[in-house]
Every structure is written in C-alpha cells, then in structure tokens.
Design a protein that fits this description.
Two copies of one chain form a homodimer.
Chain A: H1 58-63, H2 65-76, H3 102-109, H4 118-125, H5 131-146, H6 156-166, E1 191-192, E2 195-196, E3 198-202, E4 213-217, H7 218-224, H8 229-244
Antiparallel strand pairs in A: 1-2, 3-4
Helix pairs in contact in A: 2-5
Amino acid sequence: MEGPVLRNQVLYHIADTEQVKLCRKSLYSRSKYALIESRLCHSHKGHDGRCDEFPYLKHIHKVAPKVAKKIVRDSVMTTGASWASDEAGPNRILRWVMLLEDKDLKSKFGINMAGLKPHVVAKLREKAATYSDCMEVALALTKAVYEMPGCPRPPADIQKYIETRLGKFKFDSTVCTICRSPLEFQLFDKARRGKAEIETSHTTPRQHNAKNVGFAHRRCNIAQGDMSLDEFYAWISGILTRLKSE
Amino acid sequence: MEGPVLRNQVLYHIADTEQVKLCRKSLYSRSKYALIESRLCHSHKGHDGRCDEFPYLKHIHKVAPKVAKKIVRDSVMTTGASWASDEAGPNRILRWVMLLEDKDLKSKFGINMAGLKPHVVAKLREKAATYSDCMEVALALTKAVYEMPGCPRPPADIQKYIETRLGKFKFDSTVCTICRSPLEFQLFDKARRGKAEIETSHTTPRQHNAKNVGFAHRRCNIAQGDMSLDEFYAWISGILTRLKSE
C-alpha cells in the first residue's frame, strides 16, 4: 500500500508497514543500551539465514561500505558536532537513548546531562528519535541512495524488499533536498577537509523520521542552517526581491 | 574627491587619499613584526596631541568598545578559524605578515609554513593583505558602522574626518552585504554560542580591501560560504527556478 510521493515536502510516504510482515526478533547485543530497547531483525518474517537489522543494506555494504555505514550512523546516532572536542558531553549516542529523562540517563548509564552546557544538552536532545523512526529513516535513505544517478542497481531481492515497503523505485530521481539538483552517487566519495560533500538532511530540522529526511549537498545543508526548508526558500526569495528593487 | 557609491558590488569607492594629508609618522611598537612594516599615524597632518593609528575610532571605542576592537581586529588580523584548536599553525596574525615568503617567515619569525597542513597554509595565505589595504578596510568598516540604523551619530570632528576621506555619510543606510536587509547597530551585542551575529564580510571572498568589505549577518555569511556574491545570487536564483518547475 503505497502512499503519495510529494517531492517537495517529503521524500517518501512510508508504506503501511502492517502490510509487510517482518521478522522482528530481538537481536543479541552486548550494548548497555539494549536495556532500553531491543534492536530488531528487519528481514521478512520466516526468512532464511541469520537475523539482520538492515537486510536491505547488504548490497550497498559490498559496493560502497562507507555509504552503508553512513546510512546506519546517520539513522541511529546523534551526529558528530563541533562541540565534541571542547565539551565533556557524549558526541555520538543512539538517538533513542536521548529520549530518556535526565535521572534515568544518570542512574542507568552515568550520563550527567545536568553537567553539560545548555547548548550541548539542546543539541543532544533535539536529535532524539524513537528506534522505529530511526529504522524507517535508514530504509528511506537506502532508497534515496539507489535512486541517485550513478548508483549501481539493487539486486532483485533487495529491490523487491524496498519496493514492498516504500513503493516503486524511480531510478536517477534523487535530488538534493535543498537545491533540487541531481545528487550523483559518486559525490559520496568526495570530501573537502575531511567533510563529506553529501550530508543527510532534514526538511524540517530536528524531525528525524522517514518523511523528513533525504540527502543534500554539504554546502546547501550549511546554508539552510536551522531554518526549515520553507523558511529557507522564503529567505532566499526575499534576498532576490530586495536585490531587484535596489 | 569622492567616487561613485555602487551599493551592490562595493560599499564605497575610497576617496583619493592624496587629497587628504595624513600625518603618517611611524608609531613606536615593540612587536617583532614592526620590522616588516611600520604602523602609521592616520591623524591629519599637523594634528594636535599624540599620534594615532585609528583616530576615527575614538568615539566608537567609547560607546561600544567591542565594536571598535572588532573593526581593528577584522581589518588587520587573519581571522580565527576552527583549525586553531587542532592544528599547530598560528591563528590570528597580522595580515601583511602573511605576504612574506616561507623562508622569511621561518628565518625571521620562526613560523614554519612547510610544517602546516596545506589547508591551514591556504587559509592563512588567502587572508594576506597589505598594511595600506587593512587601514582602508578599517576606515570603510567604521563608516559602515556609523551608517547602521541605531548607531549613535559621530562627533563633528570624526564625521568630518571620515567624510573627507570617504564621502558624505548616508545614515541608516547600512544593509547586510549579502541579504540586503538593514543591519541594526544593536545586533553587535547579540551572540549565539559565543558567535557574534554580525560578521565582517567580503563581497568577493579573499579580497581584503575597502571596496570589497562590509558587514553581514553571520547566517548570511555562512550561507555565502566560499562563493562570491554574484555566485551566491546565481545559486539561490537557480534553486528557486528549479523549485518552481517541479
């Protein structure tokens, strides 16, 4: 059951996952955070072989391991921030851990939020997201990668898996969510001063869910800053209007 | 002799300074860099009182010392960069020192450019400027500050000094060089996470001279990035065009 594709506001309308039976067995983990929430197998119910949280990433993991790792990292972790070096707070942490209250973070995991600077707390808290949202983000990002010009086509089983959950592929259709020009898969290889040229972006900042994520040029993402996309477009439109009237 | 005021491309056409006789006596300095270039008195020839490199900043220095310091700092120093913390290179250094060749920097001042990472060297070198350009930048920025809405008016002597060198004031006319909306003087007091909301900006990046500098919102400056203003406007115009055609 596929929803409408609204290119401007959302990348994908996530299909009703009730229609797709997933295995959902808990995966064994030694992480202390497994106490909060078990990570689940996302293979189809009754699948062969081992359980896998990201079965649809197998192919990308082979052809472009860095991209697969980026999808996982950006989906589930709070992102690296410049304050990591000079502040005492955790930098990358599972997004759903940041849904816990201060007292639980302290008593259960030794994370003292009260000891962090307010803007560090804000940065961490605004990146909080449920496990389920993170999983849908990973899937949506994977589809967006396969739809980039220059990306190798998915094997049939992975194509079917993704299409069953998110609807038909539109290959070569992925554009920067901000500047709307095509995003070449090869751009993942490019970096300036250690910063990747493609970043995961949020149409509305701080809403980490499948409808709100996509990829953007680093330059565009920086320009958007903490504006929503609508605010950003209104802002640049205002600039051009003022410029014309001078 | 005042030149044309081209609001879009340049802030001011600097007046022919030959028409304005300045004192230009060398100022005593204990800085090791005084060996390269003497800093000069910029009061009018035959002035009363002590020599002064920035006589036109006296009033702003009184009413808003931080702003006066910012004008001096941004005019003469290479700016602070994020690499300062994790790289071994100098962070703030006089812009004209960066005009020297590697071998002179090493033998005379112990600065080993060859030992720095290439992007650090690039950052330092691209901020190089002559002493004379830095002095004109300081004057142009001072005029732009006085022309901000909300800025106290200059005392008569300073008004005359600046107008003699740069032409008539147009009070309340200073706009962000990038987004073209009025820049309130009060915005100098505002900062987010230690970052001032107003930054010195360069219409064409890396050209540090009076015709190419102005003030901009921090947000706008970040969005412009390493594009020239023309490139930036073309870029945002392209975004809106693509958006409309979707």
